[in-house]
Design brief:
The chain is mostly helical. It is built from twelve helices and no strands. The longest helix has about 30 residues, at about 135-165.
Length: about 300
């Protein structure tokens, strides 16, 4: 039966039905570092996602646990609780890929993960830079950070839809385990795409603040992605002559060149996809298909392996 996008006005939740936390199990023993054959740039660029996400997703969980006592809507509270469980599993899955896949192939990852830890444990902590905020600002700081999560979750929904729909990777003979990680995670991002925005609005987040929150989140995420990918590429002798760095034009040009071949989402395309977040009538439900996401989740090999 098709899932309607009509929102029930009796609840603060736009999510249809109940979110389902799922266990997954990935076997990394046969996944090559160059998981798309003949495409080391694309392989390394996407592998950076494994380093970028875990610290942020565990931070989401801590933040949402703090927000739960403020939620006055039963359906939204249920959504938030299941969102936390899904995000925790995402963080563990990508953390497993770091330890069992990237580190097993000799990739040094601590340099990257240390900077993400600093962002979420120091800069965006409950006590930023170790300073306790005045009581009058603590709730505002909570809502500000929830707004950042809402902006980031819009991006992850866009990327999730891209991962589900991209068939260039399959045609190139991409490793099925890493593809499953990307698509399982992307499908769950689509499934829970409304929760962060609903929570932000429910706790007082405003329309105008979306502008500066998205303006902060987008360049930071894209910059960290390129910066982390460059660190992985510097460990590959094939890229030595390019001196990969987010502060040098080569990596940005190569990103766009690979995007034109359908191997990566274009930076300019990603920026265009953020525009709907600025609309006064923005509704995450219209950004992707829940049915397509659930169809993949029913077929995910990692979910089937965990269930078995």
């Amino acid at each position: 039966m098709p899932i309607t996008l009509k929102r029930n006005r009796r609840t603060a939740s736009r999510t249809q039905g109940a979110l389902q936390p799922r266990k997954v199990a990935f076997d990394w023993s046969n996944t090559p570092l160059e998981w798309i054959p003949g495409q080391p740039f694309v392989s390394h660029f996407i592998n950076e996602i494994n380093l970028l996400l875990p610290a942020g997703e565990f931070w989401f969980c801590r933040l949402y646990n703090q927000a739960l006592p403020h939620v006055q809507d039963d359906k939204l509270r249920e959504d938030v609780e299941n969102f936390i469980r899904q995000e925790a599993m995402h963080a563990r899955a990508h953390g497993g890929a770091v330890a069992e896949y990237l580190n097993a192939h000799g990739i040094e990852t601590r340099t990257n993960t240390r900077q993400e830890d600093w962002i979420f444990e120091t800069l965006l902590a409950d006590r930023p830079f170790g300073r306790r905020l005045p009581r009058s600002l603590q709730y505002r700081w909570l809502v500000f950070r929830l707004g950042l999560v809402a902006a980031i979750e819009h991006m992850t929904c866009v990327l999730g839809k891209y991962a589900l729909e991209n068939r260039v990777w399959d045609e190139a003979g991409a490793d099925t385990t890493l593809l499953d990680l990307l698509r399982w995670h992307g499908a769950e991002e689509i499934e829970h795409r409304s929760v962060a925005f609903d929570l932000y609005c429910h706790l007082g987040g405003g329309y105008l603040s979306r502008y500066y929150l998205a303006s902060i989140a987008m360049p930071v995420i894209f910059g960290l992605w390129a910066h982390g990918a460059a660190h992985i590429m510097r460990q590959d002798a094939r890229f030595k002559r390019y001196k990969p760095s987010a502060f040098r034009p080569w990596i940005w040009r190569e990103w766009e060149r690979q995007a034109r071949r359908g191997r990566l989402p274009s930076l300019f395309w990603l920026m265009r996809q953020q525009l709907s977040f600025f609309r006064p009538d923005y509704d995450p439900q219209y950004e992707a298909s829940t049915e397509a996401a659930l169809a993949y989740l029913e077929a995910s090999p990692a979910a089937a392996r965990a269930a078995a």
